[in-house]
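Memo to structure team: turn this sequence into structure tokens by end of day. - J.P.
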Amino acid sequence: MIKIKDYDKKQGKMSFVTDMSISLANAIRRSILEVPIMAIDEVEIVQNDSALFDEILAHRIGLVPIKTEKTNKEIKFKLKEVGPKMVYSTDLKPSVETDYKLPLTLLDNEQEIQLVAIARVGKGIEHIKYSPGLMHYMHNVDKDIVNFVMVDENGKVSYDEKELKEKCNEEQAEKIKKLKEVNELLVGLESWGQLEVKKMFTEAIDILDENLAELSKAIK
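Reply from structure team:
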């Protein structure tokens, strides 16, 4: 069961309530790092008059999110700017096609930057620059009591009596004592922009399914 709570396609965020197990949620979370996306992998700097070392500038460019399509294999970007100005990720040509305007470096009067960058497809398990986003989850417990209860793998709720008396008000204490089981997770997802957040989630599920199929073949 999955019940969508919030979904913002433009911001790349989604949250839902689900009855899936913690182990399954964690497996999907880890599988997100196996979803292939594009990131800048090679930078040739022709000129860099900015205060940043070439290595730092290349590192910053490598973390720029690039819209990823299945047809993409390699994209060459160019950057040529003259100060005074702040150089942003939106100055890369052609456009990276994401909504983020990320500062790369500051150019003073008559300072110049010129480079060529090549983006390739990769996975987050190889390098974090290929991470498409993140997934997090918690037991579906009211926010005002979530820090005072413990939920085991079977959904059974427990709490510390001493902490309950010292840190909780009467309303919180009563709510905690009535709570016996929690069998739902509140899951949140956020995409960095390379993929639409729902697509990132479904691709992670497909990858997990493929990995389990391969494991099943290997142990037969």
